[in-house]
């Protein structure tokens, strides 16, 4: 197949087949890859462990050779681009922890500018400005003077992202950039990448296992499934087409179309009626589902009503001739147990 893609897109692949070669034997990880990225777009690549996400990112960045097909950066085959040209176009952050020797964080970030220096390797005023800008954007000024070897995994992750920002390629590729980060830093990094895509018109591709971050932040998703072409679309269309369910097909989980999350498949042993205001309704339902009750609007034998009582809430249970009141979900669950086992 020879797909026509406009040369103006920063990155596209053509009938790409990726995998590993050892002697005469090769192992295909993914094939029939025909993808493109636009400027100003944040793309999240999702797929189960081992499906080939890192292999794809490394092939696009010319670290691994394609088994067949090609990758084009600004219309030029990567096979024709030197490593320096690749580095000027693609800022890459991989998951492997690199040996930083005795470098400070500031030195490590400044390495991002080396694809632009001349033979002397000296950074210009403009280069130093970019380094300062990257440190500021990644919010790591407090780490600047530390030895990079002393950083935690999460801190080093942010520093490597700063180095990629300093490198300032038109394309940014990051393998699991939020893997070691706490919730606050995860949101900070995703928001940073999203606003960078918009404000600096970069094409940003990340691989991630964080479905909720991807669903709520990505302009596009690339869904990789073993032995099938990668599925592409905006998150909402893919959710409605059931593509996420198919990508992460699993006996123990269901993709919940209402919440955009995967939920454990449960076997309910009993129904129970529930009514009440939010968020009390949702969290009571959550606890009841966890205990094996299927929640319905109204049940013939047992109903719970959540009502306000002064400044607090109470849970009233009606079961045949029993009428009980509880002041927390925990006491409700204990009470239900004793009512049912009576
Ligand atoms: N250097 C290598 N040589 C041979 N096979 C490899 C090599 N690296 C990875 N593989 C294999 O290629 C397949 C894809 O691996 P890859 O690391 O790309 O998956 P992934 O989707 O990034 O997984 P994860 O989500 O666990 O990081 C796996 O089956 C893996 O065993």
Structure notes:
This protein is α/β, with parallel strands linked by helices. It folds into two domains: 11-250, Rossmann fold, CATH 3.40.50; 270-340, Double Stranded RNA Binding Domain (2-Layer Sandwich), CATH 3.30.160. Helices cover 32% and strands 29% of the residues. The protein has helices at residues 53-60, 83-89, 105-110, 125-137, 153-167, 183-200, 211-217, 235-240, 243-247, 280-290, 329-340, and strands at 11-22, 25-33, 36-37, 42-47, 68-73, 76-77, 90-93, 171-175, 203-207, 220-224, 231-233, 253-256, 261-264, 270-275, 293-296, 302-309, 312-319, 322-326. The strands form four sheets. Strands 7-8-9-4-10-11 form a six-stranded mixed β-sheet, sandwiched between helices. Strands 1, 2, 3, 5 and 6 form a five-stranded antiparallel β-sheet that branches. It has a five-stranded mixed β-sheet with strand order 15-14-16-17-18, covered by helices on one side. It is elongated. Adenosine-5'-triphosphate binds next to helix 1. Keywords: ATP-binding, Nucleotide-binding, Transport. Pfam families: ABC_tran (PF00005). This is ABC transporter ATP-binding protein. It comes from Splendidivirga corallicola.
Distance between the termini: 69 Å
Tally the beta strands: 18
Tell me the radius of gyration: 26 Å
Binned strand content? 25-35%
